[in-house]
Amino acid sequence: SSRGSTKLLLLIGVMVLGLAAAACSYATRLWHFYLLFGALAPVGLACAGSPILNPTIMNWFAQRRGMALGLAQTGGGLSFVFVFMMESIIEGFGWRTAYVIMGSLTIAVLLPIVLLGYTFSPRDHGLRAVGSTDDTSKSGNTEAPEADCTTEEKWTRESGLKSRPLWLLFVSNMLFWGTGCYLILAHQVKFAIDAGYSSTIAASTTAVFGLFMVIGQASSFISDVIGREATIFVASVCTGLATVILMFLGPGSGVVPLYTFSVLFGIGAGLFAVCVFVGVADIFYGRHFGLFCGIVTAGMGFGGAFGPWLGGVLFDISGTYRYSFLFAGLSFVISFICFFLAAPRRYTTIKRSRATPA
C-alpha cells in the first residue's frame, strides 16, 4: 500500500468490520453469518489489521522493533476482556443487541483514532524513526531510504515473491498459528470437559491463555537482545511443552497441569505472534513490506481454515484428541525449522556491516 492510501484503507477496514458485526443482529439464516462474519469481516480485518499496522510500526521504529510491535500487539491479547463484556450483554439484552453494540463500539472508538492519530510514516511529517540515523527526512525525501533496507539491495515486488525466505515465513506462520495454535484453541475446552473438568474451569483456560499471551507479546523485546531465531525457539519450546501436558491430561490430573498448559501456551503464542513479523521486517522492510507482511499473515488464515477441521477429523477417526494434539506439536517443530531456514539473522548482519564505517 502507498502512503496516501493507508489511512483510507484503515477507514474502510474499520467501517466494514463494524458494519459487518452490527449487521449480524439482523441475521436469520446460517448463511447470513457466513457472509457477514466469514466473508465481510475478514475483509475489514485485512484492511485495518496487520498488513497495514505492522508496516506502520516498522516505519516508526528503526530499532527495538521487537519491543515496539510486542507492545502494540498486546491489544489483541487483551481482547478477551471484550469477550467477557459481550457475554454479559448477551445475558442481559440478547445476542442481537450484543452484535449492534460490538459493531458500534468498533466504529465509535477506532474511527476517531485513525482520523486524528494515524500517520503511516514519520517522514510524512519530516520526522525520523526512533533509533534512525537517516537524514532523508531533512531533504524532504519520502521514499523508503536505503539505510532502512536490511538487504544489500531493495526488494522489488518480483524478487520478494520469488524469494525462499518469504515462503518459509508463510509456512512457518501457517503451521504455528494455523495448524498448531488454532487447532488446539478450537478443541481445548471440549477436551478438558471430556477429561473430567467442569465447564467453568475448562472455559477459564481461554482467559488464562489470553492473559499470558499478552505477557508473551510484551516480552518479545527479548528478540532485540537474543535474536529472532532464539526467541522463536523459546516460543516453540513453550507451546511444545504445553501440548505434551495437554496430551496426558486426564481424570484426576488436577487443575495445576491444566493451567500450566494455558500459561505456557499463551506465552509461546504471544512471543511467536510478534517475532514472526519482526523477522519479516528484518528481511523485507522497504517499499513492498506491506505486501510481504500480508502474505505471511495469509499463511495464518490458510492454516486456520485447515487446522481445526483436521483436529476434528482425527478425533472422529480415532476417538481421542491425542493424535490431533500430536499433529499440532509437529506443526510447532516444523514451523521453527522453517523460520530458522528463513534466517532473519543473516539480513540483520548485513545491515550492521553496512552501517559500520570502513
Overall description:
With 358 residues, the chain is an all-alpha fold. Helix content is 78%, strand content 0%.
How is this structure best summarized?
The protein is mostly helical. It contains 16 helices and no strands.
Defining traits:
mainly alpha; disordered C terminus; Growth Hormone, Chain: A; 358 residues; single chain; 2 domains; 78% helix
How many runs of DSSP E, i.e. beta strands?
Answer: 0
Distance between the amino and carboxyl termini? 36 Å
CATH class assignment of the largest domain = Mainly Alpha
Largest sheet: none
Query: What would you report as the Rg, rounded to the nearest angstrom?
Result: 21 Å
Question: How are the elements arranged and paired?
Answer:
Layout: H1 3-23, H2 30-48, H3 50-60, H4 65-77, H5 79-93, H6 95-117, H7 136-139, H8 157-161, H9 164-194, H10 199-218, H11 223-226, H12 228-247, H13 255-284, H14 289-318, H15 322-342, H16 344-355
Helix pairs in contact: 1-2, 1-6, 2-3, 3-14, 4-10, 4-13, 5-6, 9-10, 9-12, 9-13, 9-14, 9-15, 10-13, 12-13, 12-15, 13-14, 13-16, 14-15
